[in-house]
Amino acid sequence: MTMENERANLERRMRKALQVLLLQRGRNPGVKGWELRRYLGRDYKKITEVLSGELKTFGLEVFVVPGLEPTEESARFMLRFRDSPTLTEFETAGHRIDDLAVLAASIAFINAKQGRASRKEIEHFLREKFPKWRVDYSLDRYIKRGYIDQDDEALLRIGWRTRAEIDEKSLITLILARGNEVSPP
């Protein structure tokens, strides 16, 4: 195979990978590794790495969220912003500011409890600042969308989508910085 043929084949497969990543199937964004292997072949990982490099000029990257199993095929591949999105970008994505506050406070609370907390604890914590209906609605919404995981015992954990889309360290740093600015009552 000549160099031109190899380049044309790589570009064709990168276009296919981008199409697969952009088209959402089901409720969750992105695709599983086994789906990419089916569409692109065994070297799908190499193709996504090259595609991620090409998308850098647009401020995007192909991000891999590890699955429950330690294999690449159970991992979820998705597109995300290379830099953290601004508040304006979140507002245009259909998120209300008070819903984002519930999510941010929930993530901070779960992290403060070493990665898991009971739903009742989080609800009690959030109801000090938000109405009951807003807390219930937002928690259910973020559980359904994968930002927060809930097990059978009503323990909440950080979800796969939070790990993929939110820089938790920066979020906690911002919360702590804002807490220092507030003067005590």
Overall 3D shape: elongated
Stated plainly, the CATH topology of the largest domain is called Arc Repressor Mutant, subunit A
Task: Label the CATH architecture of the largest domain.
Answer: Orthogonal Bundle
Major sheet size, sense and barrel closure: 3 strands, antiparallel
The secondary-structure class comes to: alpha+beta
Number of domains: 2
* CATH class assignment of the largest domain: Mainly Alpha
Name of the CATH homologous superfamily of the largest domain:
MAGE homology domain, winged helix WH2 motif
Q: How would you state the average pLDDT, rounded?
A: 82
Uncertain stretches: none
The string of secondary-structure elements, in order, is HEHHEEHHEHHEEHH
- Provide the gyration radius in Å: 20 Å
Please give the order of strands in the largest beta sheet: 1-3-2
Which range best describes the helical content: under 10%, 10-25%, 25-40%, 40-55%, 55-70% or over 70%?
A: 55-70%
Distance between the termini: 73 Å
Count of helix runs: 9
Characterise the protein shown here.
- By secondary structure, this protein is of the alpha+beta class.
- The chain has 2 domains: 3-81; 87-181, Arc Repressor Mutant, subunit A (Orthogonal Bundle).
- It is 56% helix and 13% strand.
- The chain has 9 helices and 6 strands.
- It has helices at 3-22, 33-40, 44-55, 87-92, 97-112, 119-126, 132-144, 160-165, 168-181; strands at residues 31-32, 60-65, 76-81, 116-118, 148-150, 155-158.
- It has a 3-stranded antiparallel beta sheet.
- Strand 5 (148-150) and strand 6 (155-158) form a beta hairpin.
- The protein starts with a helix and ends with a helix.
